[in-house]
Amino acid sequence: MQPNLAGKLVRLSALVKSKKKAYFILSLGELSPPDSQMGGHVSIIVQVPAQLVWHRALWPGRAYVLTELRASKIHGHRYRVWTTTPSSHLTPLEPECVRELDLDLELGRALLEADAKTLPRTSSIQERQEQKGLARDSTLLSYTGTVTAVLNQPAGLYELDGQLGLCLSYQQFHSLRRVVRPGVRLELQDVHLLQSVGGGTRRPVLAACLRGAVLLRGFSRLKPESQSSLHAWGAYLYEKLVWERQLGLPLYLWVTKALEELASKLCPHTLRHHQFLQCASPASPSLALQLLAPTLDVLAPPCVPSRNAHKEILEEPHRCPLQKYSRLQTPCSFPTLAALKEEGECKAWDSFDPKTLLSSPEVAHLTSCQLNQRLAWSWLCLLPSTFQPAQVLVGVLVASSHKGCLQLRDQSGSLPCLLLDKHSQPITDIRLIGCLVRVERFQLVIERKVKSSFPSWQELGMEGFIQDQGARVYVQFLLADALIWPMPRTFLPSATPSNRPQPEPSFPEVPHVGQSRLFLLSHKEALMKRNFCGPPGASAAVAKPTLSFHVSGRWLGGTQRKEGTGWGPPQLKGDENKDQKVLLIFMGPSVRWFEFLHPGQVYRLVAPGPPTPALFEEDESSCISQRPLELAGCTSCLTVQDAWILEHERSQDIPDLPGISKALPESSLTDLLSDNFTDSLVSFSAEILSRTLCEPLPAASGTKSGSTEARKGCVKITVAVEAADCEYPPHLDIYIEGPHLPRPLGLLPGARVYFKQLEKRVSRSHNVYCCFQSSTYMHVLSFPPETTVSVPLPHVYLARLLQGGQTPFQAIASCHIVSVFSLQLLWVCAHCTSLSVQGRCTHQSSTCPTQTSVSQASIRLLVEDGTAEAVVTCRNHQVAAALGLCPSEWTSLLELVRGPGKVALQFIGPEAQPESSAKTDEPLTLFLRSLCTSLSVLRPIELSFELERKPSKIIPLEPPRLQQFQCGKFPLLTHVNPRIQLSCLSIQEPEHSSSLGAFASSCSKTATKA
Ligand SMILES: [Zn+2]
Ligand SMILES: [Zn+2]
Asked: What is the pTM (predicted TM-score) of this model?
């Protein structure tokens, strides 16, 4: 006889479906014990297919009778449990019908010893908490509530009673998925309550594992939503995460959020939902998972044993993925590009404070114009770690046919980007266009441009002086730091011309019909607006400057036709041995190739469509007359048509290629710094030291002064030229000006840049400087370092500066102030820089808007360090340091000068009487004169300096000259080195002992030399 069991339903598991069978497990307990939950109970497996429907009818807490059960052994378990037989019946228990219950329960206990004797749970929890400080246990409870919102249907996330989260994905809830919608009433049996799970989720979450049951207790009045295929793909993905990756709930919730972010960035324009969520093949996970993989692999390594449903339901103590959890620190987020751009701009303007930007003591001496010019351009570099949580950049790489730059794009917008291949190489692989890029390490650069009218430094903290401000935001990263996925061709922008806001021209796959020709690129000119005359027949009305660039190079062989998947043999013509130079003009949409074309590389120009004879030959329509110089050596000048495609060819794949020098041409330092103008175009690599906006160059301002273009100003970049075996790189200024010259991305302090064909000029003071030309090519070699290490200046003897050749441009010398040549203190109008007397501007007929005046000071000193002498010019705040005055003394001295407006002293020779423009008997003049000759000024100092003239070979160093000295009665003739001219950077008081040491050592050096 098979026994019957009766009792109160104390636990009901979820309906579990595996490949082999479907089942659920219910537990019957004693009818009215004081604590039925913790008391003894018997678990019964229901697995007869016809009986599975009971799962919907059972109410926990009610009493039932199950008939004709048998005890059986579960595979993988050490004990036996009750199971129903096909002839079993379920009936509600009517107490009066029951005669014998205890026996069944006794029997159950015997069978399920481990189950009935609950382990001392509390102590074990404590132990485990001690082991793992951060892990907590979730609470098992039962709850009845109404669904108020569907948060993410494929992920099984709902909102209960407006305040709780509900996650059903840890159960197999297919049947419920169709039913659960707002208004549905659910009874949740034995679900886990998890609080403060982190990862961006704030409310407590109820989550049901297989032990608990989710029972439908009331229907919704709402119509069911139609099940889109998106839901099915999504659901499959989320199931994989729970069942195969075994994510805990905090991580699972974060993943659902991250996938929502990613899908909103990419679907449906870049990718269809199914392309994003579906796996391409069983072996390769879906793109969605691949995008998350770098993060998931760290947080949830994919090597956890899979879940065992029987154990999860039956075993005591209960173990399931929801049992233990720890608060998740949000690993990262995938912001839309528009949001990232906005956040970058916000941070850039939040941190923009004129007062901190100009914090040096020098600021007090700047005129209004100087002050506002220094504020005009500044930049900020944000690293992913400055965002909380860290931001991951995801977007599709496109080449803009409007701006010629590379952009990352998602559905929210686009962000210009600057990419570097490894080894400082520019990117050349055109196949990158259209690829999906994921980058964790990048620099978000914000260049700030400010138009301000601060009258003087005193107003820097006040508002209302900034008229206009703008920001340029872009990202720069290394290709090696990016994960790249080619996108399905059918979903490139070209193939979806319908609802794209900005249709980009097509990048179709290599066509089946077409012709191509190889060329070696030798030079690329700047991308800028140029004037073109139209083809001879066209009207002259469209003579607007067009964004364009040129490249020059030469053809490698003749035109090739498409043959199958490859290219046929080159069609030879009579003049093959001729050096076929070519000038290619890129204008209109073909400017999109700009970022991929670089000197020394071989490209294939492909014209899709049926072959046209002599397509890559002479181009009559282009403006040959415009470029006579370039055309001198070219057999053809060709305008690249919009539909043509470029491919990068690896040069080792090309036979018969004469050796191409991959090294970038660089001018020698001698060429660079000499006044040899046989080639005024110079090329070099350099590190950018500083970048400022300045007044237009004199030559250019003469033509267009006053126009808006001239007022745009000029970008001045100071660089340290990199030269082989040169210990102290010379510094050079490079100017970019003119309305048509673009401001390239990446010209930032700290970056290393290669410049080709800069124009060399020499200033009136014989300084060499360079100017950007329309023919200038540049590419960034490396981005600014993420952490800047300030390199201390070299410590030198002054004689070192006389040796010529390699002298440091900036250095420190321990020296002694021998005498003061001149000293000038004055007050000028901050607006017009005229002399200001008694604080009033003296400019005639001027109505300066503000009567603010600023003090200016300069002093010329003679210093020597035992090896040589130098004349040092100190300006403004450096004068205070030179005179050894503390800030309060300096301020009161300047206040004394405010009355007369100007005090200037000339000292002729160290022993001569001072001459002064002011009356010599004035107390102020007397004081300054005695100060300048006193030992408090004539003292040892640590002088940081730079050469007054940027290094140039134009004026060779003067040879030592003979000079006569009077030594007592005897005249002495000796060789004297020319005086070195230095500009002061700063003056420090020497530490006494070390200065003595330095002095002593320098003395001994000269002694040994002598
Ligand atoms: Zn559980
Ligand atoms: Zn004035």
From this structure: 0.82
